[in-house]
Specification:
Radius of gyration: 20 Å
Number of strands: 4
Distance between the termini: 22 Å
Structural class: alpha+beta
Largest sheet: 4 strands, mixed
Helix content: 40-55%
């Protein structure tokens, strides 16, 4: 397929109920086509369906592999891991949605390393002072906040390193292709 024609992507809605494929040559093109298919208008955010990483730059978009699954979100929607229910208070500023998460972590704090990006962001953005009625141990809350922020940062750095490796690999592939063309 020629680059000017675009590459195939898979797109899902926030509930993962609608899924379709499309070909796009740019992020703008993808947003336009996907909004038409999902009957969305206005501002939308494109994220990786896998982990919720926002795709907001053409340069990053161009590094995505063919058939990457992307999700479109309206301003009132948030990414959540697959199969996870979306209670109305999940990201509520009062912290009620954190109660179950904090309860699970109190029983085994090691689970913090297994959490997805959305949950890690929720924990790293929490206000420990407002949660002492749920979890009276302020030291525990501070440690969870710090650990989740560190893990989230590490995951982002790892993703950035992978993105750089993909760019390097793509550049090498193009370079080798040009060498073989010149040799002929």
């Amino acid at each position: 397929m020629m680059e000017s024609e675009g590459y195939p992507y898979k797109v899902v809605d926030v509930g993962r109920e609608k899924k379709f494929g499309l070909v796009a040559c740019s992020l703008h093109d993808l947003v336009h086509r996907a909004c038409e298919k999902l009957n969305l208008s206005g501002n939308v955010k494109v994220v990786l369906e896998l982990d919720g990483t926002e795709v907001d730059e053409e340069e990053y978009f161009s590094t995505l592999e063919k058939n990457t699954i992307l999700m479109l979100l309206t301003p009132d929607q948030n990414w959540a891991p697959p199969g996870r229910k979306r209670p109305a208070d999940e990201t509520d500023a009062s912290g009620r949605g954190l109660e179950g998460l904090l309860s699970r972590l109190q029983s085994d704090i090691g689970h913090v390393s297994l959490l997805g990006g959305c949950e890690l962001e929720l924990l790293s953005d929490m206000d420990p002072d407002s949660l002492t009625d749920i979890v009276p141990d302020r030291v525990f809350l501070d440690q969870i906040k710090e650990a989740s922020g560190r893990i989230l940062s590490d995951k982002r750095q790892a993703q950035e390193a992978m993105d750089l490796l993909k760019l390097y690999h793509n550049a090498q592939t193009i370079k080798e292709g040009k060498k073989s063309t010149l040799a002929q």
